[in-house]
Design brief:
The chain has 155 residues and is mainly beta. Helices cover 0% and strands 54% of the residues. The protein is built from no helices and 13 strands. Strands 1, 2, 4, 7, 10, 12 and 13 form a seven-stranded antiparallel β-sheet that branches. Strand 5 and strand 6 form a beta hairpin. The radius of gyration is 18 Å and the shape is elongated.
Length: 155
């Protein structure tokens, strides 16, 4: 805003944002959805990320961009059949991306999913994986393998 005399006043809006990743690899159960554990935060501007989930803080309802990446790995070469990553809103699968290798199995693959969501105060967002393969594992942050992030993009 301007006071008419050339003096400007700016207002900075600090929207919620977070970036988290696993502190260690996580065993996944073959052919079963598993919540991905993100124990380490690079940043969490509103202290709204805890217990591997982001909860929309008071006064911050709006549109959010959510992104998740999971590096799924099987125990042996040519035994990974599929790698699916899902975004859950309030405990319900809302969006997913699935990669299927049944006709040409591999050992590891990074799946990503992203979308924008209208979220209300108190809504919470989590990431899940569904890996089909021999002794599957969700690999940790090493070389930026698995992570979860989001930020408010507007009202």
């Amino acid at each position: 805003t301007s006071d008419g005399a050339g003096n400007l006043t700016t207002q900075k809006t600090n929207y919620p944002a977070f970036f988290a990743y696993p502190s260690s690899s996580q065993t996944a159960t073959h052919n079963t959805s598993v919540k991905i554990l993100f124990q380490t935060e690079s940043y969490d501007t509103n202290s709204a990320f805890a217990d591997s989930k982001f909860t929309v803080p008071s006064g911050q309802a709006g549109k959010y961009y959510i992104y998740a990446s999971v590096y799924g790995e099987a125990a042996a070469n040519a035994t990974l059949e599929s790698n699916k990553i899902m975004i859950y809103i309030n405990g319900t699968q809302s969006f997913y991306n699935s990669n299927d290798f049944r006709t040409n199995q591999i050992r590891s693959f990074t799946s990503t999913v992203s979308s924008s969501f209208d979220l209300s105060v108190g809504d919470y967002v989590e990431a899940y994986a569904y890996i089909v393969g021999t002794s599957p594992v969700v690999q940790a942050q090493t070389a930026n393998r698995s992570y979860f992030e989001g930020y408010r993009i507007g009202s």
